[in-house]
Amino acid sequence: MALIFTGTQRAYRATVTVTTTMSITLWVKGSPNAFSRHCETTAYNLTPSADGSCAFNRITNATNGNWQCSVANNGMTVADWNHIAWTYDGGSLSNAPIFYANAVAKTLSASTQPTGTLNMTFDQLEIGNRADAARPFGGAIGYFCLHNVVLTPGEIHQSMRFGSTPRGLVEFWPMLSALSIEPGYAGNAHGLTLDASAPTLATTNPPVVPSFLRSSLTRALGGAAVAVSTGQKNLPLMGVG
């Protein structure tokens, strides 16, 4: 359950509103383009690099905030599936985000503290690119969650294990349709609309099946164990809830 962005597509987008605090969790795999986007709004963007490093940028009317986690610090291998999460309390300019790689908080390798007024207009969320299509992501994205709270380390682990966690959940997009509309599954009517050409369904999937999918698949298989190919490791799938 993931979608492959080839590095040329425009984005999936949704109109959402969150508060000054936020958390984003998702599964990713593949070698992104330089300065590409996992996601972007008018207020922030998540920027992966080809070497596996990740950055969080917070937009203001003066100096933007920028925090980075190098591949040396995050320990991720971009050819494998990785669960990543950023949490951030934008209520103060002195606050820094927290970055998690596979549910482990990592040391940020560089940072620029923002100055000025934070842009709190969380309106149009773009996934896999930015609005002008100039920062396409190259790789797969699955189980994208947006929250309006700062998730705890335990909740980050729960999101990695089960695909999502409920507190403050604005929307959960499994990224499983490759159609013009990707429905949200949190019950908040935030469907993603495809801007242009559709991504393709991934042939390998994150090593987790959310509860609502697992129960459906189990029934379809007559109670047999659920298994999908992760293309990474022969591990038992998580998400037995």
Q: Helices, strands, pairings?
A:
Blueprint: E1 3-6, E2 12-15, E3 21-29, E4 39-40, E5 44-48, E6 54-58, E7 65-69, H1 71-74, E8 82-89, E9 98-101, E10 104-106, E11 110-112, E12 124-127, E13 138-147, H2 153-162, E14 169-173, E15 181-182, E16 192-194, E17 200-201, H3 211-220
Antiparallel strand pairs: 1-13, 1-17, 2-12, 2-16, 3-8, 3-13, 4-5, 4-12, 5-6, 6-7, 7-11, 8-9, 9-10, 13-14, 15-16
Describe this structure in words.
The protein has 241 residues and is mostly beta strands. The protein has one domain: Jelly Rolls (Sandwich). Helix content is 10%, strand content 32%. It contains 3 helices and 17 strands. It has helices spanning 71-74, 153-162, 211-220; strands at residues 3-6, 12-15, 21-29, 39-40, 44-48, 54-58, 65-69, 82-89, 98-101, 104-106, 110-112, 124-127, 138-147, 169-173, 181-182, 192-194, 200-201. Strands 11-7-6-5-4-12-2-16-15 form a 9-stranded antiparallel β-sheet. Strands 1, 3, 8, 9, 10, 13, 14 and 17 form an 8-stranded antiparallel β-sheet that branches. A hairpin with an 8-residue loop joins strand 8 (82-89) and strand 9 (98-101). It is globular and about 40 Å long.
